[in-house]
């Protein structure tokens, strides 16, 4: 586990090579096809093997990446359903499953479960989306304040998806969403079921890594986004709403300069990284890899430390 650009993929691959493992991606962005540069999806290829057709990265099966059309949505419930089926299959092949990713809700949902909440309603979601588009995020937030002041206190107005989901839950359940949240997010992860590792960089070093990755991949990211638009994918499809793509779309439309787009993507990525680190810091029973200088990131040495912990 860890923030974006923290080195989860390379460390997972190192562990997979040592253990004879297969990687289970817990990253909602990397599920999308046709989106590699902007999601930092590991570079691989779909390959037929004796055990089936897998997305192989350096010869290692990497599950739950490159599987969804950018118009499709993904959620924690689907991840849990598919992962509960996949992990026993990996063990049955004599391999070790290694879950790696930064979507904290996916990790939480698989290991500790989610609150029993009503499923999303497409019609209601369309109504709420229309409210956000016509009145702005504060109009949506005002509705949450009216329906569930406690939820509004706990959710920032800028987190439109969470605001929308809280309103949806409240309307569908007939009671405030805040009354249905159990607080299980602070539970320890079940150390008897697995070994949990949290990579945490010093803030300034993580910022450097995020900026370097953004700058290095920007041109490829631009070409990738142009190709998606040329294929008819709408700007508001779920894939193009993921981290960094809205800023790239602003750049392609001439609304911001390249320098501004890079600055905005880095800023959004750092804000997301802060939320990720806060989420993963909640869990006890984790091995924390605190990286204070660039040379601290040595996948081989870190893998050895994990295996000996």
Features:
309 residues; alpha/beta; Rossmann fold; Histone, subunit A; 2 domains; five-stranded mixed sheet; two-stranded parallel sheet; 12 helices; globular
Verbal overview:
Strands 2-3-4-1-5 form a five-stranded mixed β-sheet, with helices on both faces. It has a two-stranded parallel sheet with strand order 6-7. The chain has 309 residues and is of the alpha/beta class. The two termini are 16 Å apart. The protein has twelve helices and seven strands. Helix 4 crosses helix 5, helix 5 (137-147) runs parallel beside helix 7 (160-173) and helix 9 (203-230) crosses helix 11. The chain is globular. It folds into two domains: 8-115 and 194-308, 3-Layer(aba) Sandwich (Rossmann fold), CATH 3.40.50; 122-181, Histone, subunit A (Orthogonal Bundle). A hairpin with a 2-residue loop joins strand 2 and strand 3 (52-57).
Overall pLDDT confidence:
95
Supply the helix-strand structural class: alpha/beta
Low-confidence stretches: none
What name is given to the CATH topology of the largest domain?
Rossmann fold
Order of helices and strands: HEEEEHEHHHHHHEHHHEH
Radius of gyration: 20 Å
Euclidean distance between termini CA atoms: 16 Å
Total of DSSP H or I helical runs spanning 4+ residues: 12
Within CATH, the superfamily of the largest domain carries the name P-loop containing nucleotide triphosphate hydrolases
Estimate percent helicity: 40-55%
Task: Specify the CATH class of the largest domain.
Answer: Alpha Beta
The CATH architecture assignment of the largest domain turns out to be: 3-Layer(aba) Sandwich
Strand order of the largest sheet: 2-3-4-1-5
- Quick one: biggest sheet? 5 strands, mixed
As for the number of domains, it is 2
How many strand elements?
7
The protein's oligomeric status is: single chain
Beta-strand share of residues: 5-15%
Give the overall silhouette. Answer: globular
């Amino acid at each position: 586990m860890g923030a974006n650009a923290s080195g989860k993929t390379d460390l997972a691959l190192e562990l997979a090579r040592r253990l004879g493992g297969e990687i289970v991606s817990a990253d909602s962005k990397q599920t999308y096809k046709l989106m590699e540069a902007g999601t930092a999806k590991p570079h691989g290829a779909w390959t037929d093997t004796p055990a089936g057709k897998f997305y192989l990265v350096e010869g290692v099966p990497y599950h739950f990446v490159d599987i969804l059309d950018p118009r499709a949505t993904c959620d924690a419930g689907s991840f849990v359903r598919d992962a509960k089926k996949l992990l026993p299959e990996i063990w049955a092949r004599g391999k070790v499953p290694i879950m790696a990713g930064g979507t904290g809700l996916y990790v939480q949902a698989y290991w500790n479960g989610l609150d029993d909440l009503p499923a999303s309603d497409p019609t209601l979601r369309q109504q709420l989306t229309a409210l956000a588009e016509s009145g702005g995020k504060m109009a949506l937030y005002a509705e949450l304040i009216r329906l569930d002041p406690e939820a509004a206190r706990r959710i920032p107005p800028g987190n439109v998806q969470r605001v929308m989901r809280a309103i949806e839950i409240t309307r569908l359940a007939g009671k405030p969403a805040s009354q249905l949240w159990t607080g299980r997010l602070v539970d320890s992860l079940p150390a008897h079921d697995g070994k949990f590792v949290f990579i945490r960089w010093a803030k300034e070093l993580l910022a450097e890594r995020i900026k370097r990755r953004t700058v290095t991949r920007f041109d490829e990211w631009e070409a990738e986004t142009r190709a998606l638009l040329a294929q008819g994918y709408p700007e508001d499809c779920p894939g193009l709403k993921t981290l960094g793509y809205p800023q790239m779309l602003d750049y392609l439309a001439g609304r911001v300069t390249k320098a501004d787009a890079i600055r905005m993507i880095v800023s959004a990525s750092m804000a997301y990284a802060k939320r990720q680190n806060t989420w993963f810091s909640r869990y006890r029973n984790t091995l924390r890899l605190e990286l204070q200088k660039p040379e601290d990131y040595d996948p081989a040495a870190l893998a050895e430390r994990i295996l000996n912990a």
